[in-house]
Design goal:
This protein is an alpha+beta fold. The protein is built from seven helices and 15 strands. The strands form three sheets. Strands 1, 2, 3, 4, 5 and 6 form a six-stranded mixed sheet that branches. Strands 10, 11, 12, 13, 14 and 15 form a six-stranded mixed sheet that branches. It starts with 25 loop residues before the first helix and ends with a helix. Bound molecules: zinc ion.
Length: 304
């Protein structure tokens, strides 16, 4: 297992230094937010502002004057970090976004993700996850009092019981069961016809990754995992998961699909899997490169 140097997944490889030591430096944050080199991405409903430039769409990174002219008063400001040249980046809660209509529109990250650059996906994905966490965690989980945003958007403190709450990350294992020269993909009923993907499930308290992989593979497909090979991980901001990709070698190919969760499962040969990721299979297709399932399949096809 080697996780560095290169993560193949969308939402990884942020170009920013998170500069965590600046999060409590209000004077620095205020100056950075108003500085000439600041980049501010407005978000509405956890969707980034998108501006059409010619026939291309780009995220609406704004300067201070434009962003604050259009944003609601007192809008939540999240410090994302600084780029290689020291330029600070922020996300700004744009409320219902109506005042930004003169510039562009707010687009769902999942729908437009494949059209964004790797850098923009990583920065805006992080912003989306944190802003959605704030929206859903306004009250202290210990005592129920309304909590306050601190640390430049990276923590909520309870004024009553003094508890500190950090943005949550939900770990999910996603695995490709492999037996010999075949791999198992499955589909959910709600997916587009013909789409197949890897198995996945939330990791539970008390479970190491490999035991969650074994449990989910048994629950969903009735297959016994004999070896779990770490592939890569992916921040997946829907709403704030961390996908942990594993290639799971299984004892046999006698699957029993849990039809409560899944519609069906299907074994694909390596040749068929190559066609799936190339988009050339006759009656099935895999998730796009944007999804870690695609990267798992690609690695198995190319490297075994
Ligand atoms: Zn509290």
């Amino acid at each position: 297992m080697t996780l560095l140097p290169r993560n193949p997944n969308a939402f990884a490889r942020s170009p920013l230094d998170r500069a965590g030591h600046r999060r409590r430096d209000q004077a620095w944050l205020d100056a950075a937010f108003e500085g000439a080199d600041v980049q501010i991405i407005p978000m509405s409903g956890f969707r980034p502002l998108v501006i059409e430039v010619g026939d291309r769409a780009a995220p609406g990174w704004l300067d201070h004057a434009t962003a604050t002219r259009l944003a609601p008063r007192g809008a939540l400001r999240l410090f994302l970090g600084v780029d290689a040249k020291g330029g600070p980046h922020f996300a700004l809660d744009a409320g219902d976004g109506a005042s930004f209509a003169e510039l562009g529109r707010f687009e769902d990250l999942r729908m437009m993700g494949a059209r964004l650059s790797s850098d923009d996906l990583a920065m805006i994905g992080a912003a989306k996850a944190v802003l959605e966490w704030h929206a859903k965690h306004g009250f202290c989980a210990s005592c129920g009092a309304a909590s306050a945003i601190v640390e430049a958007g990276w923590r909520r403190d309870c004024p009553q019981c003094k508890a500190e709450h950090y943005p949550r990350v939900d770990p999910v294992c996603i695995m490709l069961p492999v037996f010999g020269e075949t791999c198992l993909l499955a589909r959910q009923r709600m997916w587009p016809s013909g789409m197949y993907s890897a198995l996945a499930g939330y990791i539970e308290p008390g479970e190491p990754i490999e035991e969650a992989v074994a449990r989910e593979t048994m629950e969903e497909a009735g297959l016994r995992v004999i070896e779990a090979r770490m592939h890569s991980t992916q921040p997946w901001p829907f709403p704030y998961s961390l996908m942990i990709g594993v290639i799971a070698l299984v004892a046999d190919d006698k699957e029993t699909i849990d039809t409560e969760e899944l519609e069906t499962g299907r074994w694909f040969s390596r040749e068929e899997a190559a066609l799936l990721i190339a988009g050339k299979h006759a009656d099935a297709f895999a998730p796009p490169p944007f999804a870690i399932a695609h990267q798992l399949l690609k690695t198995w096809v190319e490297d075994g």
